[in-house]
Amino acid sequence: MLSRQAGDRTVPTLVTLLVIGVLLMTFDVRSDGRGVTSVLRNGTQTIVAPLQKGAAFVVNPVLDLVDSLANVATLRETNLALQQEVAELEAEIIALDDDMARLEFYEQLYDLETTGTDIGRTVAEIIGRPDPLDSALIIDKGTNEGIAVGQPVLDTNGYVVGSVQQVTGGTARVVPITVGSDGVAVTVGEQLGVVLPQINDNILRLEVNPARNPVLAGDKVVTSSQSVRFPAGYPVGQVTLDAAPTGAGSLSSLVEPYMNPDNIRVVVVLAWPPDPVAAVTEPTTTTTSTTSTTIGGSTTSSTGSGDG
């Protein structure tokens, strides 16, 4: 009975307190001059504001990260486009370089063909290169184009390459001056001499006899007017070693040829001499020229003297 009466007092007390609380809140709202809605709104804002700040603290960096990733993707696309443009420009530059090299080559060839128009010239491409068993060059022109045994061969710079040794209808075999057994009559300054190939070396030996003056490294060596197979004045190479006349009145040095058989792609064959058969069968030394005779005596290591 006592517990039931205590419970009955608790409920009225709670109801009374709630009523008093509502009355006090209503009195407070009316005293501020604001409505209930405004009070509820302010209260809600007070509660929600910290939550909004926390959400902004978490969400804003995420949004910044997303924007950064989008910017990175855009930059990557721009970078790829720029790389593509650079590659295209590089390809254009390479093509221009090739065109310039081709233009320079044809200019050299044109100058060579228009210099000395009294000598016939035939342009030919190299289709066979030296190997350990054969040091000759094979060109794609032969008797069908007027190529004959004994004719001299130049590169596109006008440097002496060698001479034609064998010919077929559509090809010819060219022996460079750096191989074989024959020498080339040359001029060094005002002195006459002969250059001879060295075994297994892209170098020439210069012999001058009689020698009146020394030769110096860098001196130019050109074909001599005493030559039978080569017109005079064509560049052969340059002296690499200083040399002075010996007591016997001769000198010996080395000459580096201007041409390199491994780098030649196109050659020019000269229709020289007018009678190539006579040039091949003509004796390599003559007694009518003192210079040729003395040169022949100095080339004891060769089977023939200059222009043999």
Structure commentary:
- Strand 7 (191-198) and strand 8 (201-208) form a beta hairpin.
- It is rod-shaped and about 150 Å long.
- The protein contains 4 helices and 12 strands; from the N terminus they run H-H-E-E-E-E-E-E-E-E-E-E-E-E-H-H.
- Helices cover 41% and strands 23% of the residues.
- With 308 residues, it is of the alpha+beta class.
- Mean pLDDT is 76; it is low at 279-304.
- It folds into 3 domains: 1-32; 34-114; 121-298, Thrombin, subunit H (Beta Barrel), CATH 2.40.10.350.
- The strands form 2 sheets. A 6-stranded antiparallel beta barrel has the order 1-2-5-4-3-12. It has a 6-stranded antiparallel barrel with strand order 6-7-8-11-10-9.
Quickly describe the structure.
With 308 residues, the protein is an alpha+beta fold. The chain is built from four helices and twelve strands; from the N terminus they run ααββββββββββββαα. The chain has three domains: 1-32; 34-114; 121-298, Thrombin, subunit H, CATH 2.40.10.350.
Keywords for this entry:
308 residues, alpha+beta, Thrombin, subunit H, 3 domains, six-stranded antiparallel β-barrel, six-stranded antiparallel barrel, 4 helices, 41% helix
Structural class: alpha+beta
Number of domains: 3
Tell me the β content: 15-25%
Largest sheet: 6 strands, antiparallel, barrel
Question: What does the secondary structure layout of this molecule look like, with pairings?
Answer:
Layout: H1 2-32, H2 36-114, E1 121-128, E2 137-139, E3 152-155, E4 160-167, E5 172-176, E6 184-188, E7 191-198, E8 201-208, E9 220-223, E10 235-239, E11 251-257, E12 266-270, H3 276-281, H4 290-298
Antiparallel strand pairs: 1-2, 1-12, 2-5, 3-4, 3-12, 4-5, 6-7, 6-9, 7-8, 8-11, 9-10, 10-11
